[in-house]
Amino acid sequence: MKSITDFSAKICDELKKTVLAINEEEARHFYDMLLSHMDKQIFVLGAGRCQYMLRAFCMRLMHLNFRAYVVGDTTTPAVQEGDLVIIADGAGYLTTIAEAARLAKGHGAQIAMLCILPDSLIGQIADFHVVIPGRTAAHGGVGQSIQPGGGKYEQSLLIFLDSIVAALVEEFDLPFDAAFTRHANLE
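The structure assignment produced for this chain is given below.
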């Protein structure tokens, strides 16, 4: 067996290639969509590991004073006309998420999809896509990975979303630790 740190380095190399393969126009459009929804609500929706990546992103948006919520949490308000729903589902075939996307569209929300397969069930509902190259166990995808399941996609998703946050901090010319004024202080 190779050393654990060799695996870590190979995964980092894999992730660098993956994020560099994300279409810059799609990434910029997603960024602009966020900015255009600063006076609206932003919802994130995903399952499994994708939901964890989205939760981290949602927390950072809240730190930057966006009204951001995780779909399914008890304190999440109703979606309204003009809100933005961000969905991450690598393959795009989870029927529960597809149904939630249909409901959101029915209430007048825009749907941004972060996915591997834009022509999927959920992808056909979405208004916009950012394709993050990766693979899923059930539906295949793009390229190869030394990681099982959707690890390459999920980790690249987190890096992409953290990059969006870094760009927002720069856009607003915020000090590096500005977000911590809204950080939880009861933990």
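Interim note for the steering committee: The beta strands are 41-46, 67-70, 84-88, 110-115, 128-131, 135-136, 140-141. The two ends are 40 Å apart (CA to CA).
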